[in-house]
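I would like you to sit down with the record closing this message with an eye to the fold:
=====
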Amino acid sequence: MSQHGGKSIIVTGGAGAIGYATASLLAREGAKVMLVDINSEALDKRGAELRERGVEVETLCGDCSQEEAVTRYVDHAVEKFGRIDGFFNNAGTEGKLAPTYEYDVAEFDRIIATNLRSMFLGLRFVLPVMVKQGKGAVVNTASIASERGLAGACAYNASKHGVVGLTRTAASEVGQLGVRVNCVMPGVIETPLLRGMLEQMFPTVQEGMETLGKVATLNRIAQPEEVATVVSFLLSNQASFVNGAAWSVDGGALATIRDDV
């Protein structure tokens, strides 16, 4: 049996690049998946694509920063699948860029809600299901911005630092109850979110791609599927002794200093 055969897994931000790449991989590995996203049009398209491949998939449109939406997707998953074996807590956004001393307060609150409050709510309502089962695995989406500062992105940085803190705290609470909680810290990944940031940071997106590709010692920008592979592993039984970890998927950006600059 494939490593996710028979499992039911929720993917928030499931219509986005990393979320959908991960859901697709999990489905190929035998999982039943629920996609959750705030973008109803993209969500319907992604769900239809998976159904055409014969995947057992549920879709639910909702704002993951709102308690009602989170309880709805958790209840729906339990109703349809009977259990929740895995959870990719992935919904997020980049936000506008501005210096901290000029950052719009309402925009700061929006990014914290979307990137951090949504993570807490997902953990708050998925973990009780897994604890009751005595088994489960969670992967939260953090970022290399969880470990470094990025000028102009105070809200994004703060939210992603917070994701690592939530991950480590939850892992310390539920590990002994049969549930593992980890996070991934993607680096520069080719996604619409990245393009949105590059449009604000560089004269052209292509120039931004070339510049930020040099952040990694592998000298390139990654594809969403490269993050999906790591998430799939962390959700699998093969990662049975990995708990509370923050895995960088960044081409060596955090761990190294380039010797050619």
User: Anything to note?
Assistant: The first helix runs from residue 17 to 28. The CA atoms of residues 37 and 61 lie 5 Å apart. The chain has a mean pLDDT of 95.
